[in-house]
Amino acid sequence: MDVLKVILTVVLVLISIGMTVIILMQEGKGNGLSGGIAGGSGDSYVSRNKGRTAEGKMVRYTTILVIAFMVISLILNIL
Length: 79
Hints:
mainly alpha; cell membrane; transmembrane; transmembrane helix; translocation; transport
């Protein structure tokens, strides 16, 4: 049982590092104040096809890593 805890802890640390890197690589979601003033509609080709871009893939990977982080954290808490 102790070996399983060590393995899960190492995996948890690796997932944490991966999440940190991916989150820091992502762009901001909001247009901010200047986007609202300039009249940016947000309905462009890029915004409609966001899931196919590199940014969309990073969001998907972030979601997967967060779910894995939560599951492994719960498993470690139970053990």
